[in-house]
Structures
1.
Amino acid sequence: MLTFFLLAAVAMQASTTDPKCTWATLDGNKPLVIAHRGASGERPEHTIAAYQLAIEQGADVIEPDLVMTKDGVLIARHDRYLSTTTDVASRPEFADRRRNRPYGSGERSDWWTDDFTLAEIKTLRAVQPRPDRPQDYNGQFEIPTFAEVVALAKAAGVAIYPETKAPAVHAEAGLDMETAVLTALSDVGWTDATAPVFIQSFEPEILRSLNTKTEVPLVQLVYELPGGNAPEANIPLADIIDYADGVGPSKVLVVGKSGDSTGFVAKAHRLGLFVHPWTFRDDQPPADGIAIDEELDRMILLGVDGLFTDFPNTAVKTTQRSCA
Ligand code: G3P
Ligand code: CA
């Protein structure tokens, strides 16, 4: 661990005296600051206000998670249910819309996006789901459609990183997430490999299918299987190279619980995959006790190609400092 930090200090010193900033990323460019659900540490997640603040703070990319309405419109929400991030529970007109549905390995009683039309969704207002984050903006912002987030990204000149949430479950309800995503992107001309777009999913099936239909970069999200200090990803990198351009690992796959590199980035880079780990949070630093900027520095020195963060302002400053 000490060796790691000594090397890190040397590398940081080198980067601060080098007139040309050098990065250990796959393409040699600065790692991307990916605003996770927008600047979601400071505004209710997945609102235009959260994305707008991230853009103002200098994020390179904004990340909408996507689910669908009953009438087949993609909206920006992390979950298929609405109780934690909107004021739906306080709306008497929707009280009878609450119902039990299978969720994960069990059941959940909630309000579900595909039980609402877009017009109904637009009457709801976003709230901050984490009690330890600012509640001042609750009730102010509506739920954006994917098309509205795309339009914002295009106007602002930043990239967009849509995540298809539960495409197989949506398909069971007759909702075709893949076609809806491709249509929204093609409506603004974002169809080729140079489009400022990354499509991500935890489900490899939709990515394999998208790989036959679009040239835009595809990213397989992976999480750690139960294990020791350096756990394995749930999908092997050797499989991912068949259909994706990059991999989005949980951060513990990159730096293990003891704070040491797992070798994940180097292995992915050898296979030609870029690496965008998640999720970095100023208010939730890593278990080994270092500060958030040290956590970000550690990842940057390992060569990650982008960082999903709820606090893009901090990541922007860290990357600027690394290249000062
Ligand atoms: O998409 C990267 C990361 O956001 C995956 O986790 O649950 O925050 O969407 P989640
Ligand atoms: Ca996500």
2.
Amino acid sequence: MAQSPSKTKKNTAGKVNKIEKSAFGTLPNGSKVDLYTLRNSNGMEVQITNFGGIITNLTAPDKKGKYANVTLACDSLKGYLKGVPYFGALIGRFGNRIAKGKFTLEGKEYTLATNNRPNALHGGRKGFDKVLWTATPIDAAEPQLKLNYTAADGEEGYPGKLDVEVIYTLQKDNSLKIDYKATTDKTTVVNLTNHTYFNLSGDASNDILNHELSLAADKLVPVDATLIPTGELTAVAGTPFDFTKPHKIGERINEANDAQIKYGKGYDHCWVFTDASNKLKNVASVYEATTGRVMEVFTTEPAIQFYSGNFLDGSAIVKGGVPAKFRSGFCLETQHYPDSPNQPNFPTTVLKPNETYRTTTVYKFSVK
Ligand code: BGC
């Protein structure tokens, strides 16, 4: 049942609501921004704002049962408005890079802002991470936040009015499920994801180099110096990109004679899953030994951008006034391959008016 529990923290049965709404601030244009707090019965908490659909807090237990925020996130709306590199945000209409901000669809060329010169990145100057979504809290046993946004035909240069719906569900098993859905009135391209930076130590002043990562991916999408795919897929075996068995993120990240590592200044690449099906499958697992925290990623998508925070430089400030320094967070952005609109051999990202785009990703937290 949809309700706005802002007025009271208790529902009619006297139980604490599993979802609560509070004020998060005001945008420069006067729009009010809200914050929703979702809780499950174990004590896990996820906070999401309708500005950019940003996850501003996500707690997970350590091996002593202590819950702590495991994401890079700001204390206030102001922090996000100062400009942070997509902390916690929903990304669209097209996640990742499009070469030189141009693509052709049904014979017509489209031009996007080259906001990551010389390329387009993450939906443009004002992508889905910077818009106000319409939020509907759903106070169920597994609380949900439904977010809706309609991108206009031509918005950020993309064709077609796109109706987008994202549902965050905090599940009983300490997982956060994200269901994405979109429909269009003209042929367009879509690649939605979430850009949360994780630091499973629960302390953003640590780097993430000792986290152990495994990826169920035997191929990489190699890129050029501007991080645009060359068009081929290469085997990860025998390279610093082989995470088919767990490796510490820091183990091979500075292998300067690997051209791909050099281009990404570390890891900033798209891996292609060995299982190419669109079933919900376990594609990644991360372990942080000092806290025992484990995060597993499940998705219906064919690929994942693993970004090791190489462009973090301490200028963005996270909770408690902590500078988000070099490699203090990593992203696992489930998605289609970068630059797909210009790559005829990649799985298509085209969405037609009679079709519905649907993907699901789950981030599940446990300890070992
Ligand atoms: C990209 C990085 C970029 C970051 C945003 C990631 O998804 O792959 O290259 O720097 O987003 O800051």
